[in-house]
Amino acid sequence: MDYDKIVCNCQNVTNGMIKSAVDAGASTLEEVQDATGAGTVCGACVDDIQHLIDQFVKERDGK
Is the pLDDT of residue 63 over 90? Predict the structure, then answer.
């Protein structure tokens, strides 16, 4: 995965920033939005963010 790829263009949030937020304890879309600002402007990337959260939470929790 390219951690430098921007997932939220409005806030310039990358895949790596989403992963960092999840690694720091965020587990929901709302928690990641609070930590990064991703998905809080136009909302077009919310589905992509949720997919990343699901993936990173599974990795983090070893599932």
Answer: no
